[in-house]
Amino acid sequence: MIRRHVPWLLLAVLVLTQICYPLTTGVTRARLTVATVVLGYLLSVGHALLRRGPRAALALVAVATGGGFAIEALGVATGFPFGSYDYSGELGPKLAGVPLIIPLAWTWMAWPAWLAAVRLTTPAGRAAGTATAGTGTPGWAGHVGRVALATVGLAGWDLFLDPQMVAEGYWVWRDATPALPGLPGIPISNYLGWLLFAVLLMSALRPLAGPAVAVTDSRDDPMFALYLWTYFSSVLAHAVFLRLPASAIWGAVGMAVVAVPLAVTLLRARRRPVDRPAPQRTGVDTPA
């Protein structure tokens, strides 16, 4: 019972922390940013460990945390693949020019993006007491489609993340051209870099983590809730509280590729008659 509620508890604390973010400024906001990333990391890695076991959790840490640090260190040192940029000192201690929380952020959203893609690319199945379940393992073509969807699910988040963090001054590009309309200060190469690393990350996750990460069920509801909360709350925050209307639009479109079908799929699964408990038989047949 405790294991089942831990992810929900961490998610609740994460949501409360994020709600506080637009209400603060300066050092307090930076500290809330760090706290949010740490909570998100604990939530995703903890969920992977509790629901999929040590192999999945270690694979997630290896490819998302380890890989995230490696790609960021490469980017800071060479400008590839995100463009030439520097981090400020507001996000805590650095290693090789990279704040230590940055690889945690990759991990935080990689896991729900992967599970959302799995949920959307496997047939809805029935499981005792569950409203959402994925069954079956896709073939090669299906796996490629799953990786592609997970890649977009993760990279789409950056259409919210980078504009918000650049506006706060947490990092800056030396050359931010060309940029997407309405999103100055961030070169298009950054988003292409996100796509490149995300596809590498998602391609490696399944082979390393094993078959346990190829299906979903109701135990993954906290991760689906995290992904959908991130999407809808980011649209609202950027449009209303952070005064970043362009990133609200770009992010709404980018993450919608995964978030909207996921929301629809989960709602349909919960309304599906086969998911409702069958009526108890009394032993007496009632004539029509």
TrEMBL record:
The chain crosses the membrane at residues 32-50, 57-80, 100-120, 140-160, 191-212, 224-242, 248-267. It comes from the Bacteria. Keywords: Membrane, Transmembrane, Transmembrane helix. Pfam families: Caroten_synth. The keyword Lipid metabolism does not apply. This is Putative membrane protein. The lineage of its organism: Bacteria, Bacillati, Actinomycetota, Actinomycetes, Micromonosporales.
